[in-house]
Amino acid sequence: MTPFALIDNLEHLPNPFTQFDRIVANLEGSIPQLMDPDYRRDLQLALCFIYSYNGSQATFNSYRREVERLLLWSWHKASCPTTQLKREQIEEFIHFCISPPESWIGTKNVARFKLSMGERVPNKSWRPFVAHVSKLEFKNGETPLAKQHSLSQSAIRATFSILSSYYGFLMQEDAAQQNPVALIRQKSKFVKKEITRKQVRRISNLQWDYVIETAEILAQEDPTMHERTLFVMNALLGMYLRISELVADERSAPVMGDFIKDSDGHWWFKVLSKGNKERLVAVSDDMLNALIRYRRFRDLPNLPTIAENTPLVPKNRGQGPMTSSRQVRNIVQSCFDKAYERMCEDGMRADAEDLRVATVHWLRHTGISEDVKTRPKEHVREDAGHASMATTDKYIDTEYRERHASGRKKTLRPH
């Protein structure tokens, strides 16, 4: 049996603390378990837990995904509410997530709910798991197959972390006697320990030269469309921005007034980053010049004023700030694709290959990787908004260079 979605998107979800009956009324016709008071209470507790993370769309979605999967497995496979699950059943659930049946796996993202006679009801095409193909495979015309679904190590770690928080909440509500996730002593069965540090995914300096030159060419040919493109590319690399820090969402809307000049005449950019934490990013002279160029194009004074509310990145059509992270991805991808073509035309196909698989986040990695070569890592950490120095240390590859330099001289015929 393929289960139906239980929890709608945040913008359509009534407050479960006050409107739970309204939520259940739309689900009862599709989900027979909700006729049982134990299951109704199970759903209400899960909704209240997830709704508490409504300050961030991304966090809400992550917590909903993990808890909803547990609810569906518990109701359909273990035949009990999640409040009654034991340690061994949580282990069964983790195994299930690693290898779910094909009937639980979709091959494309579809809406969880849809409108029917004015009411939002579960979409029968939705699945709890979705198979994906890599960016390069998608470009080559390959489509995902359900049997190819797999969970990454980071996804398994997220499952453990979120479900442990969920059971901590249930214990506080006196709905569970213990945390079965915390009782699993051998999580290493599911999560492999990383023996060595992963290489940071970044583009090379040569590739960046072609990418930014491509953006400059586009801006010269069609400034109305691509002066914004050039500014976006510079901001992503020059200030290590995440997509969420560049577009407007329910938490914040970046404006020109977020560029701030201090009493020493130094410029900073104020960012609302993950965890709703503000940070200040040092604005380099080059980045300031990029901002001036962009503001001149938009018929604004060279530099922002205090409390200026002009959207940082506006829509090309219509009014207001850009709100679509997909649009930013399309802007970056277009630059990557055109830069790849130019490199191939210049006879550098091998050097260009990374641009076929690179993502927006690689620009943040590239900016940080370059800066830790010349700046104090404490400064880079503050600008990047890393929670710990260990994260910043991942970008320092001096050890790799020295290790490889000593290894290059190894001979296959020892004397």
Provide an overview of this structure.
The chain has 415 residues and is mainly alpha-helical. It has two domains: 10-189, no CATH class; 205-397, Intergrase catalytic core (hpI Integrase, Chain A). 46% of the residues lie in helices and 7% in strands. The protein has 15 helices and seven strands. The protein has helices spanning 16-27, 37-51, 57-78, 87-98, 135-139, 153-172, 205-221, 223-238, 285-297, 325-345, 349-352, 361-371, 377-384, 389-393, 398-407; strands at 105-106, 113-116, 119-122, 129-130, 259-261, 267-273, 277-282. A hairpin with a 5-residue loop joins strand 5 and strand 6. Helix 2 (37-51) packs antiparallel against helix 3, helix 7 packs across helix 10 (325-345) and helix 8 packs across helix 12 (361-371). The protein is globular and about 65 Å long. The relative contact order is 0.08.
